[in-house]
Amino acid sequence: MSKAILETYDGTATAVAARARDLTKVYGQGETKVVALDGVSVEFGRGRFTAIMGPSGSGKSTLMHCMAGLDSISSGSARIGEVELTGLKDKQLTRLRRDQVGFVFQAFNLLPTLTAAENITLPMDIAGRRPDTGWVDQVVATVGLADRLGHRPSQLSGGQQQRVAVARALAARPAIIFADEPTGNLDSRAGAEVLGFLRDSVRELGQSVVMVTHDPVAASYADRVVFLADGRLAGELHEPTAEQVLDHMKAFDADGRVS
């Protein structure tokens, strides 16, 4: 099986964690028809942190949901590694999401009766997989939770709860993590901590992360920012600063179109 290779901005080659080819997503028919994604082709490198940005309604969350197997696509192709999502049945998609994909959402989605440690290993426990304790310990150290593992969510701050969610996503060693506005419920300090841990997971643990965000500061933690407008690609930045991201976003007018 051939390896998918992405040429990065600095000329080095890296394997592709996920890719879309001519991906189109349409909701409704006739007068209610909405084209959320219009022939999007994009690749997300393995061991890289990519942010997806765009105006409200640009299709950024739809792209993430289609790439993660959470939503069907109307036409085109979506792959995680070498696995084509469009041909998978529901049970196969469920298994793929469980074994190959990690998720971090704006809501922490922790079970209140479980400790932080139990929440971290819960997906593997449900799947009947024995956690790699050495790896889990490394993940816990990376996100700074070693002294909070016995605490339940109600005993943790919002930032600590989101760190548990990040550790849970990392613990199963997924091929890729999709994060949808992961700092949306956090103050700036806690948000910066969580973003730092996501970046560390890429640099220190080799994780692949794709994050949807509306925040230029959050996007500046990524290696690369991909912009969407009107359901189409509208440029990208590498090693971005918050100021560069903000300047790029200003190119979109009030209707979300490129001016």
Would you tell me the structural class of the helices and strands?
alpha/beta
What is the architecture of the domain at 49-69 and 99-249 at the second tier of CATH?
Answer: 3-Layer(aba) Sandwich
Q: Record the strand order, biggest sheet.
A: 7-8-9-4-10-11
Using only C-alpha atoms, the radius of gyration works out to 18 Å
Number of strands: 11
CATH topology of the domain at 49-69 and 99-249: Rossmann fold
Order of helical and strand elements: EEEEHEEHEHHHEHEHEEH
The residue-averaged pLDDT reads 89
CATH class categorisation of the domain at 49-69 and 99-249: Alpha Beta
Q: What is the CATH superfamily label of the domain at 49-69 and 99-249?
A: P-loop containing nucleotide triphosphate hydrolases
Task: Provide the β-strand percentage band.
Answer: 25-35%
The biggest sheet, with number of strands, parallel, antiparallel or mixed sense and barrel status, is: 6 strands, mixed
Helix content: 25-40%
Number of helices: 8
User: Kindly, what is the distance between the CA atoms of the first and last residues, rounded to a whole number of angstroms?
Assistant: 43 Å
Q: What does this protein structure show overall?
A:
- The protein is α/β, with parallel strands linked by helices and 259 residues long.
- The chain has a domain at 49-69 and 99-249: P-loop containing nucleotide triphosphate hydrolases (Rossmann fold).
- It contains 8 helices and 11 strands.
- It has helices spanning 60-67, 90-100, 116-127, 133-142, 158-171, 188-205, 216-219, 242-249, and strands at 5-7, 13-27, 34-45, 49-53, 75-80, 83-84, 101-105, 176-180, 209-212, 224-229, 232-238.
- Helix 3 (116-127) packs parallel to helix 5 (158-171) and helix 5 (158-171) runs parallel beside helix 6.
- It is globular.
- Mean pLDDT is 89; it is low at 1-13.
